Amino acid sequence: MKALALISGGLDSSLAAYLVKIQGIEVIGINFRTPFCCCEAAKHGGCAAKDAVKFLKISLRMLPIGEEMLGIVKNPRFGYGQGLNPCIDCKIMMWEKAKKLMEEEGAKFLVSGEVVGQRPMSQRRRIIELIEKESGLEGKIVRPLSAKLLPPSLPEKEGWVRREDFLKIEGRSRKVQMALAQEIGLTHYPSPAGGCLLTDPGFSRRMKDLIEHKGDFSLKDIEVLKIGRHFRLDSGIKAIVGRNEEENKKLEFLLQGKECTLQVKGGKGALVVLEGECSEKDISDGASLAAFYSAHRQDKEVEVTWKNGESEGLVRVEPGKRGRML
Question: Which tens digit of pLDDT belongs to each residue from 132-145?
């Protein structure tokens, strides 16, 4: 018998897949790739889900859902959490895609690492039932970590899996999970905090600003949101300030010279990018930011070069923060 397990790479999803696999079920992992992943492995260019399936010794299907996520973030049916996280809509969309893959693979059911009461928006009993119904998967999702606190799923009723071997974990504590992980030799897993940038207050603030000022934003715009310091100038133009040489290069790569760029004369210091059509005042304000985030912050006047398409020039400005920091 075959089952598909949603694998984030976190502790809970890994343990849930493990508890089903040891019952003799062939488990295939599914990982949904979104532009909002912020797990520890992703920060260093890795993938926590790939690390998890190595331990579990199962295969992994990775499905990109970036474009779908943009639509959900712009207009979620069930609203947002404390940040800009549309968790209920996101879960429904993921389960719908998992259902389709389950049918294609000939799998009998799905496996989730959800724990009752762990996430305030999406893991309450009533919401778990709502998500199952909306995704057309009533009774077809096994949740091994909290199974004994929930009505038996179809696989449990039919005896495909042994309900008595599952757990009854509830709430935000990870003590039981960590003890089980130690018992089975699972030693490397991400910190339980976060996982999604949309729950981060700072990123949510930038995201809200993007939605307000650019309704047709793209995946590239999301990548830019992750880089540097962001300011909204008095004119409404956004200024992005690279924090180091690596971020300067990322901004140049993502924008490919299509925006107005500024940097202190000599090319050392923060690269400032202005998005949109720039006025002389915008260039002056951007230059002040470039000067402020350079080694010349204490100088009374700093020379800053700017380039905007085929045009370029040099301005002398007083270093200082301009506009509103996002």
Answer: 999 999 999 999 99
